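__Record contents__

***
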Amino acid sequence: MKIKDITQFLEGLAPLNYQESYDNSGLLVGDPNQEVSKALISLDCTEEVVEDAIQKGCNLIISHHPIVFSGLKKLNGKNYVERTVIKAIKNNIALYAIHTNLDNIEGGVSSKMADTLGLENQAILRPKQGLLKKLVVYVPRTHVDEVRAALFDAGAGHIGDYDQCSYNTAGYGTFRPLEGANPSIGSVGAQERVEETKIELIYPSQLERQILVAMFASHPYEEVAYHIITLDNTHSYVGSGAIGNLPEPMEASAFYALLKDKFKLKVIRHTKSLDKPISRVAVCGGAGGFLLSDAIRSGADIFITADYKYHEFFDAEGKIIIADIGHFESEQFTQELLLDIIQKKFANFAVLLTEIDTNPINYYS
């Protein structure tokens, strides 16, 4: 098996265009056509993790956090990022990161947090915009069913829990083939009028190439009349954070105890408890403070995330509980999530969890 077999599978689940603009997910080091022996999964990629991969005979490290966020101008080992990359290259170990694109899918990092707490009726906290497009194509009525079916098979027309969605309008098209044309209908120099159907379908932008290939392959015209529109619609299954309901409301103190137990926490930094039980819970792995307004608007009683600064806790304003459980702690189950995903797809492939604790924060108690 080659590295690209694994990375293409992962990017089918969490496409790279789902990542945030500041992120750097994908294959950071290595040749996608290289054969892979074993893969090591880690939350972070550090020198110690690369050494762990060497000892375990792994030539691919799949981490949540990218070791390289911004461009490297030099590789002389002056910091841990450069040293890690150099060590990986010297030992022919590929580095792959699946970060905010994994955060932003249903069943991703925040969903894992919600599952750990047993939340029901889960949904994306802030659905993403700008990921959907609409294809409009004009097809002679003799070929409408064929073209539409090809577009469906390529992934177009999938909206939420429905597929094969399209809107079709009957009309007619006119055209006149010029010199050099090879029309499937009509003759050079003569205007034609053809009964046509306008087909409109929504599709996720990462599928555009395969959808257009299917359209051109199935359409009878030499020159296909079509246009593409970028939509502002939100994608209900892609976005940041998650929200859901507890099976039964809980008093704040009891919920804190549950949270501490499920996430193996030594401490919870939180705002003042509200004078009501906790029923609706919002979560976001990593630094999720940007979602506070979404959590409040969604009716959450508590928002669980990480990396809150002192003054940001005041933003709760008595409307919600903010609970900061730590960055590593909020994402600690990401490794098991990736392990499960890969093992289900590649049952006979050796994929291991690192034994290195990469949490840079220690607690004294």
